[in-house]
Design brief:
Blueprint: H1 5-59, H2 70-77, H3 82-90, H4 93-102, E1 105-107, E2 119-126, E3 135-141, E4 144-148, E5 158-162, E6 166-172, E7 187-195, E8 198-201
Antiparallel strand pairs: 1-2, 2-3, 3-4, 5-6, 6-7, 7-8
Length: 212
């Protein structure tokens, strides 16, 4: 007995459904497997990227928050600025002589100024003096002006000797009626000493009347 046409159609449809189901299942497995492989690859490369980005940051010298050694080292070894040398040079005899002139006196001899000493001196005569009298000693410490030997000028002042922290000056001693050129009292010496930044006369300075 031959199968009916409807039966044959039913069998054919069932086979097609089964084949379609199998094909769909195979496709589903294949699509699911591909993302799994991609995810695995992405996870494996992530540490490599992280390591590469953090390595230079952790090992870069002198750029961390705690400060590197290159910057302080450069500061310590850098030469002194040019203006420092110019300023020190300006504190020499030329600047000292200019200061004396600015106070109305003319330096007698710039050779008296010893730049190698801590205590330095320049004797000046009142500018415009017709007879050469009216003198004062100007003292400097390390190139810094600190003052004069006396408040009032003397007829003459002479540097007798000097060392690093001491200067000895000689003053004329006049008696009543003595001409300026011939002090009958001769000369008296006074030693000035620098002590703890202060200049002190180690003996009495003659009065203004006896010095003129």
């Amino acid at each position: 007995m031959k199968p009916s046409i409807s039966g044959a159609l039913a069998v054919g449809l069932s086979s097609a459904v089964l084949l379609g189901g199998c094909g769909s299942q195979t496709k589903t497995v294949s699509e699911t497997q591909a993302p799994a492989d991609t995810q695995a690859t992405s996870t494996a490369t992530q540490p490599t990227t992280s390591t590469a980005s953090t390595a230079p940051t952790s090992k870069s010298p002198g750029t961390g928050a705690d400060g590197g050694t290159p910057a302080p080292s450069t500061t310590r070894t850098a030469p002194a600025p040019a203006f420092t040398h110019q300023e020190t040079h300006a504190e020499g005899v030329s600047a000292a002589a200019e200061l004396v002139r600015a106070r109305g006196y003319t330096p007698n001899s710039t050779a008296e100024y010893h730049a190698g000493q801590t205590l330095r001196v320049l004797v000046g005569t009142h500018t415009g003096s017709a007879d050469g009298y009216g003198q004062q000693a100007f003292f400097f410490v390390g190139g810094r002006y600190i003052g004069t030997d006396t408040k009032e000028p003397s007829a003459t002042v002479k540097v007798v000797s000097q060392s690093d922290t001491e200067v000895t000056l000689a003053y004329p001693v006049y008696r009543k009626g003595d001409p300026l050129a011939s002090p009958s009292g001769g000369r008296t010496t006074v030693r000035f000493q620098l002590n703890d930044g202060k200049l002190t006369a180690l003996s009495a300075i003659p009065s203004a009347d006896s010095r003129n």
